[in-house]
UniProtKB/TrEMBL annotation:
Biological source species: Brachyspira hyodysenteriae (Treponema hyodysenteriae)
Domain (Biotin and thiamin synthesis-associated) ranges: 64-165
The protein's name: Putative biotin synthase
Record GO terms (molecular function): 4 iron, 4 sulfur cluster binding; transferase activity
Superkingdom classification of source: Bacteria
Cofactor (UniProt): [4Fe-4S] cluster
Keyword Transport: no
Entry keyword set: 4Fe-4S, Iron, Iron-sulfur, Metal-binding
Positions of transmembrane segments: none
Length: 185
């Protein structure tokens, strides 16, 4: 199916417009994702609660959540990192609210603490996404400073990831991570 968008306000990046875009995608029966960076600058617990209410409205198929990690080349370079513990608590809450959604255990969790990604899985995340980009281009996608495994996580590093997951009682399937409402029925 091809969609043509006319007179669409592509320059309006307001929160309300972005929410409306997600609502429109849901009406078109397109799978959606949303999420939060935990403890990003100026974020409050009330903001997080509002985000959870919105997530309940749109019922996203994927929810990205990870601690805020500053990048040296941004206005937030000197801001405090988000906390692992709060992120893990929020992952657990999201899992209870959205039992079928895809919730990645992000590399940010592993960056903030060794074993953090595995902790995310144990708290309710159900997806890991290794960086399989060629080493030659990996540094072009540094979302934050000291990103986990920027030198080792590649096709060769999947074996290590597999072992880490098996050590906590999980098995990597190697399957695509597409959302399928029928996978649990």
């Amino acid at each position: 199916m091809i969609f043509t968008i006319q007179n669409f306000p592509l320059t309006d990046m307001s929160l309300e417009n972005r929410k409306e875009c997600l609502r429109t995608l849901k009406k078109l029966d397109i799978k959606t994702g949303t999420g939060i960076m935990v403890e990003s600058p100026h974020q409050t617990l009330e903001n997080i609660a509002d985000d959870f209410v919105f997530m309940q409205e749109i019922k996203p198929e994927m929810i990205g959540i990870g601690p805020f990690l500053p990048h040296k080349d941004t206005p937030f370079a000197n801001e405090k990192k988000g906390e692992l513990e709060l992120t893990l608590i929020l992952i657990s809450i999201l899992r209870l609210i959205f039992p079928l959604s895809l919730i990645p255990a992000t590399t940010a969790l592993g960056t903030i603490k060794e074993g953090g990604r595995e902790m995310g899985i144990l708290c309710g995340a159900n997806v890991v996404m290794p960086n399989l980009s060629p080493m030659s281009v990996r540094k072009k996608y540094l979302l934050y400073n000291d990103k986990l495994a920027t030198g080792t996580e590649s096709a060769e590093g999947v074996k290590s990831l597999r072992i880490n997951m098996e050590n906590i009682g999980y098995i990597l399937t190697g399957m695509r991570g597409d959302f399928d409402i029928n996978r649990h029925s």
